[in-house]
From TrEMBL:
The lineage of its organism: Bacteria, Bacillati, Bacillota, Bacilli, Bacillales. SUPFAM superfamilies: MalF N-terminal region-like (SSF160964), MetI-like (SSF161098). Keywords: Cell membrane, Membrane, Transmembrane, Transmembrane helix, Transport. It comes from the Bacteria. Pfam families: BPD_transp_1. Residues 65-275 form the ABC transmembrane type-1 domain. Belongs to the binding-protein-dependent transport system permease family. It comes from Metabacillus halosaccharovorans. The chain crosses the membrane at residues 7-35, 71-91, 103-130, 150-173, 194-215, 261-278. It is found in: Cell membrane. PANTHER family: ABC TRANSPORTER PERMEASE PROTEIN (PTHR30193), DIACETYLCHITOBIOSE UPTAKE SYSTEM PERMEASE PROTEIN NGCF (PTHR30193:SF41). This is Sugar ABC transporter permease. It is a multi-pass membrane protein.
Length: 286
């Protein structure tokens, strides 16, 4: 038994070491720097909660935080709805199901910066061309306003992540007991009734995983935000990650940016853990 325990820890040691060096240690150091006037090169004096107080008074930071929350809520709902819909389509008995799975998953393989530039071309050039042909003025000047920039980011995020989330739902849908679905069909249950009372409750664990992934990805979005709108116009589509980056490397205020990052980390951690707890509780009830 001792040999097994020793082998277990020997195999686990490299992972624990990497976790400590890459995540835990930088987190501890970052929290410490947030209480100082660190300028990126050397640590000056300890200033206590001054950076945190300034962060909660910073209108630009609070605006980016609110924009990120709105974006995350909409993109989480759309991405999971589209992902589940695609999973239901490709798990039906159609000949091209494997081909469709590949096609739907492919956007997730494209890098964030490249994806942002692709959709920037679509929203600006293609939409303007369609607007000229059809005479629809609202299609012209996309990404030039806060509203269209917001929906542009939502469309981009949903398009990229839906295929990835689809794979998670597929794994649960293919594990559903076929005899239960057949019995419900014999009893006269329609497609909607089967989905609502049998399929939906049984794939509840997939919602926990999918919502956690979409939540974390939506909140920490940076590269797509940079390449699609660059926070414009007038920083109105600037998300928290970009605002923190600009504070650190644009204004060269590293300690203040670190304090914002700590606040952001706490908010995301609380929301994520609350979401997982609520979803897990629903799974048990089912």
């Amino acid at each position: 038994m001792r040999t097994r325990d020793l082998a277990y820890w020997l195999f686990l040691a490299p992972v624990l070491f990497a976790l400590a060096v890459v995540i835990i240690l930088p987190l501890i150091i970052g929290v410490y720097y947030s209480f100082t006037d660190w300028n990126g090169i050397k640590v000056g004096s300890f200033i206590g909660l001054e950076n945190y107080i300034d962060a909660f008074k910073d209108k630009e930071f609070l605006a980016s935080l609110w924009f990120t929350v709105k974006f995350s809520v909409i993109s989480i709902i759309l991405t999971n709805a589209i992902g589940l819909g695609l999973a239901l389509i490709v798990t039906t008995k159609i000949k091209s199901s494997k081909f469709l799975r590949t096609i739907f998953f492919m956007p997730n393989l494209i890098g964030g910066l490249i994806l942002g530039f692709i959709w920037q071309f679509i929203f600006i050039k293609v939409f303007a061309g369609i607007g000229d042909i059809l005479g629809i003025e609202s299609l012209k000047g996309w990404l030039s306003t806060t509203e269209t920039g917001f929906w542009g980011l939502v469309i981009l995020m949903s398009w990229q992540m839906a295929g990835y989330i689809m794979i998670i739902y597929i794994s649960y849908l293919e594990g559903l007991p076929s005899e239960l679905l057949e019995a419900s069909e014999i009893d006269g249950a329609g497609p909607f009734q089967r989905f609502r009372y049998i399929i939906f409750p049984l794939v509840a664990p997939a919602f926990t995983v999918s919502m956690f992934l979409t939540l974390s990805n939506s909140f920490k979005l940076y590269d797509q935000n940079l390449s699609l709108t660059n926070g414009g116009p007038y920083n109105s589509t600037q998300m928290v990650a970009m605002e923190i980056f600009k504070t650190a490397f644009g204004e060269r205020d590293m300690a203040y940016a670190q304090a914002k990052a700590v606040v952001f980390f706490i908010i995301v951690a609380v929301i994520s853990l609350t979401q997982v707890y609520i979803n897990k509780k629903k799974e048990v009830e089912m």
